[in-house]
Amino acid sequence: MKIYVDHPELEPQLLFIKNIFNLYFEDVFVLNGKGDNQLTFNITNHTMTHVKACLTIAGQSYQSEAVRPETDKKSVKQAIAKTLVNMLTEHTGITQSWGTLTGIRPTKLYHRLYRQGLSHEAICEKLAADYLISREKLDLMRDIVRIQNEAIPDLYDLKREVSVYIGIPFCPTKCAYCTFPAYSILVHKNDVPEFLVGLLHEIKETGEWLKKNDVKVTSIYFGGGTPTSITPEDLKLLLDECYRSFDMTAVREVTVEAGRPDTIDPATLDVLNDFHIDRISINPQSFTDETLKAIGRHHSVAETVEKFKLAREHQMNNINMDLIIGLPNEDRTHVQHSLAEVARLRPESITVHTLSFKRASEMTRNKAKYPVADRDEIMTMMGLTKTYARDHGYVPYYLYRQKNILGNLENIGYAIDKEYSLYNILIMEEVQTILGIGCGASSKLIHPETGKIENYLNPKDPKSYNKSYKHYTTEKIRKLELLYNGTAVVE
Ligand code: SF4
């Protein structure tokens, strides 16, 4: 679908306009110019307080007018988005419960207003007016923000603390929907020792810097990949270095992703236990064997259950399970079945993802091979997970959205008994620096005073990482110096 826009003010907004169209249609291209006048979007009038726009689509014309919340440039964009959403809603009959929001962290908006001292009603009024967010989503945001402030009472005051993400880029096989750095451990087994040399160097150097500069660590998260893909001996080496390098006294939580059940064995669980790992993830995604096969998981449902029980026998008392809504060939019956199985295991937290077609994944490259449910079915499936969570005492404690997510929905983390993942809250709400160490690890450097965010990405593949880890470590420390001491490192 080609949409033409022909207005100087819309020229810098082509991508943004495309993102709004993508809330309703797939395969959209937004182009500058008049085109054939069959599919056009244009501003017809623009004042300091209002924007009027028109849309021609499928032989029908629509008009809409929106108020600009402020007089700055951003508010023009917001008003344009509102006109477009209003007209597309009229045309398609689809209501967007997240309104004009295309960003991934809706609760950040809520936090910002909450910190200014606004009441829930005032926040709702403002967000509904500015972004057309539904009341249901606003109430969800309120509940999540309240829980996050309970879980981390100093959430707005973590300026001199960081969290650490450690990326291990190996997995047994690559899942069809995955775009993470995940190299088959079978093929890359021999790369692990060299990779660990770099990783341990990064941990040691950054740990020393943090200690010397009295910057505390709030939480540590081992992700990837699947960290438990490496041998228990290597895992021990890694954890040893972490516990030596970081000041663990202030660390409130350590999580290790053990997402793939086929990487869990008694020796690995013993190592996790020896280091008092607080939280692990064992991710079923689905409890239907055919689905697991279709998405390339290479483990069975029986193995998920078996490894979950094994982890319990090894005193793992905070286990998360990820589920994905909208996996190929799945409908509400599959989700009902997955939820019934989850109910038998009763993990401390469940993270419900909606399938996202990421550009570089196998699933997106070969979409026809992976038929997925329609929008209404996705909504029903998501509804089932929400009802399940509510009826089984799980409360939502963080959420995020992704581009190209089925039904334009969200991913929600639920927990029982206050077993929230602090790291997930901290990374989503962008309240402190996240230091990314290892392959494909992204550092999010947040200035303690201005809140300005800089992203810094380590190389994704082990070979490039092995060649350049010293450079990336030095560069990261230079950035930390600038951030916390306002000076550059003198080498
Ligand atoms: S287990 Fe996770 S990181 Fe590994 S391939 Fe699957 S989605 Fe990617």
TrEMBL record:
InterPro entries: Coproporphyrinogen-III_oxidase, Elp3/MiaA/NifB-like_rSAM, HemZ, rSAM, rSAM_horseshoe, rSAM_sf. Residues 156-395 form the Radical SAM core domain. SUPFAM superfamilies: Radical SAM enzymes. Coiled coil: none annotated. It comes from the Bacteria. This is Coproporphyrinogen III oxidase. It comes from Macrococcus equipercicus. The lineage of its organism: Bacteria, Bacillati, Bacillota, Bacilli, Bacillales.
